[in-house]
Amino acid sequence: MPPLEFFRLQTRQEVLALYERFPAVGAEQIELAAACGRITAAAITAPEAVPGFLRATMDGYAVRAQDTFGASVGAPQYLEVKGEVPMGAAPERGAGPGETLRVATGAMLPDGTDAVVMLEYTAEHPDGTLEVRRAVAPGENVLAPGEDVAPGEVILPAGRRLRPQEIGLLAALGLTAVMVYRKPRVAVLSSGDEIVPLEGRPRPGQVRDSNAYLAAAQVAEWGGLPRMDGIVPDDFAALRAALAAAMDAADLILVSGGSSVGVRDLTLTAIQDLPGAEILVHGVALRPGKPTIMASLGPTPPKPLMGLPGHPASAAVVMEVLGRPLLTQLCGLTDPASWGRTVTARLSRNLAGATGREDYVRVRLRREDEVIWADPVLGPSGLLSPLVKSDGLVMIPLGVEGLFRGEEVAVQLFQWS
Amino acid sequence: MPPLEFFRLQTRQEVLALYERFPAVGAEQIELAAACGRITAAAITAPEAVPGFLRATMDGYAVRAQDTFGASVGAPQYLEVKGEVPMGAAPERGAGPGETLRVATGAMLPDGTDAVVMLEYTAEHPDGTLEVRRAVAPGENVLAPGEDVAPGEVILPAGRRLRPQEIGLLAALGLTAVMVYRKPRVAVLSSGDEIVPLEGRPRPGQVRDSNAYLAAAQVAEWGGLPRMDGIVPDDFAALRAALAAAMDAADLILVSGGSSVGVRDLTLTAIQDLPGAEILVHGVALRPGKPTIMASLGPTPPKPLMGLPGHPASAAVVMEVLGRPLLTQLCGLTDPASWGRTVTARLSRNLAGATGREDYVRVRLRREDEVIWADPVLGPSGLLSPLVKSDGLVMIPLGVEGLFRGEEVAVQLFQWS
User: Which residues of B touch A265 (CB under 8 A)?
Assistant: First the structure.
């Protein structure tokens, strides 16, 4: 590899293009009741038909549609009621021409019938005669076997996130367990002699390990399984040992903190000393987020490592812009639904871009009359509170000098905003 | 209460207005690492300042800004380097006029200094003289104590959902535990003699308990704790006993299935027999979803019960439109962020509305060039697969005859779509 000084800043697109070398994690079988939000690891085929039988969708009378043809209030047709279909069981008999049986919504239709006349268009006389005041077409007010799902039909492809309705469909098919990708295990390490645990009061010069908590929460929200590996001192041997342990135990390693040039260099040296290590990225053309590191570790398949900038807002933005797509890749999600991930808004003030870098500005959204405004929330990237006040990010593209007040922008929303 | 026949269909707004009688569930203290996505049960005040000390945001030299005034490449200022501030510790000494100390990003500034000159605008000579080639203003490249958060500042109100950045800020403040509303316990009961468990193959006339799985998954996605109470036979005593047990154990009771008029009447009778029961809603002006029941149970505080329609699409829509806001209320979320919950799209075909009812049409979203199209996914509400093919719902308001092809509509997105 070239000496590190020769690395140039890489663009977002260049970094994202590197991700295809990292395969999705393995699969596991889980219970259906716990599967919502998880990603299918294989296509799912319907083992049987839904519904499994001709089913009434209304309360009324099961009929041969042709027996009702021409029926109206003025000229009703008359049928003979031959009993009732019990719920949850097969009808005890079929219906011949001119015959009918009472059915409730969800009941199975008797042999010989093909439609249901709704209760309100009938009158049952004491002698067992049914007056039908409206004609029905074959198939009216019923569901045919396999109308929802036919046996053998591929109902879901691999790589799809299961939503509540998918869970419902799998339940209807009796699939009590489902193969999904396991959640990627993500090790979160903090480096930096100034970083201390949350407990107790930091001494002067010390700060709490907040970036690790922020990154771990992002990982969990985006479908990963964070693993807090704690704080590693600024020492080559300690850092190398911690990274090696994380590499064995996790699918993705995030190194948080270490904001000074010295610590970043130490981290880089420790990474390069790991088996199969390849530094892929050393600096990205993002603002904030420039001092980001990406590496590939170990033998086949390679595992990704991401070194996050030390400033909290920089780390959070790099996680949104580069970390989230990486996690999506590891999760096996092939077609990430993106509806609702951005909101179109009007910028409430001019914004200057960053020369040579894609610029991410935190914004708060505000609805005024019919217009959604994006108010930039400014502040150094060392602060957390502007992130707390923001709903998402506006990106000023590379090579664009700035955005103007009143311009329409796409706001990339933070989760739960 | 009036005889049930006198109940008229209630509008969505009328139903939503009933929810304020149901208070949020109680609070619990949980560990910060598990708190993302949860709702604050009390306002949170900063116990200390962040940062806790004057902190460098760049690698360079801590200076008194006034010592650098007028410095430029052509006319540098010269300072005396008095050592280096170690990371994670207080500086061993202060700096007098004309003095400076080396600092890394994140280090504490020595007494007497108020800014940092970035490394690249300096040259340190072997004799310990620092050449400063650019002036800095007081406060430049530093964070002041309390600049992120001042002690005593209210950083979060009650009723706010914690996102990753909130977790980061609470971590920076050393708040290792946080008071949140507990997740509402939601009992999901199924009624109907035709409903059978998922396991095994249903006999003719039987269907699996899929609606309960769909509703439970929605509850979990929206922040509740579903509790599958199983299938209750169509029998007054059994249904009453199951409802009474659910009422004791849960904060919200969902009764799923029971699609026929007879079963609905039985459910209603069993509900009315419960202590403190009051039927609030018996039929809503929604399509699908008309046969929805809402009741208030028990003494103070009352607990809500919702009887869902039997058709899967009807139940899913009622859960989206009426169930989700009820759960939000019980969760204690006072200001539910709604950015990204809807997408503006163009309707790809004409849609006729339902007379006297608010009509919810399932749609699939499709991007074509720069336009987002909403394609209606039609099909009887007895089917699950149209829900699986859809990304959200388009609502045709009460009193509107229909929507036209090409019209802009707000699509209410399903979770994860």
Answer: none
In sequence order, the 6+-apart residues with CB closer than 8 A to the CB of B382 are A51, A55, A57, A143, A148, B311, B312, B313
* Residue numbers in chain A where pLDDT is lower than 70: 1-7, 258-260
Q: Is the pLDDT of residue B54 over 70?
A: yes
**Residue A174 and residue B198: Cβ atoms within 8 Å?**
yes
pTM of the model: 0.96
Query: Which sign, positive or negative, has the C-alpha torsion B51, A270, A182, B30?
Result: negative
Interacting residues of B6 by C-beta distance below 8 A, sequence separation 6+: none
ipTM: 0.95
Q: How far apart are CA B165 and CA A262, in angstroms?
A: 27
Helical pair A236-249 and A261-272, crossing angle rounded to 10 deg: 50
CA distances (Å), origin A63, targets A89, A103, A122, A134, B297 = 18, 10, 12, 12, 41
Q: Can you give the pLDDT at residue B1?
A: 43
Question: Does any CB of chain A come closer than 8 Å to the CB of residue B154?
Answer: no
Run of H or E including B219: helix B210-221
Q: Are B87 and A193 within 8 A, CB to CB?
A: yes
Closest alpha carbon within chain B to A217: B164
Contact A388 B211 (CB under 8 A): no
Residue type, B411: V
B220 touches chain A (CB under 8 A): yes
Minimal Cα distance from A54: which residue of B?
B205
The DSSP bridge partners found for residue A231 are A190
Could you tell me the two tokens for B62? 């801590």
Using a CB–CB cutoff of 8 Å, tell me whether A373 touches chain B.
no
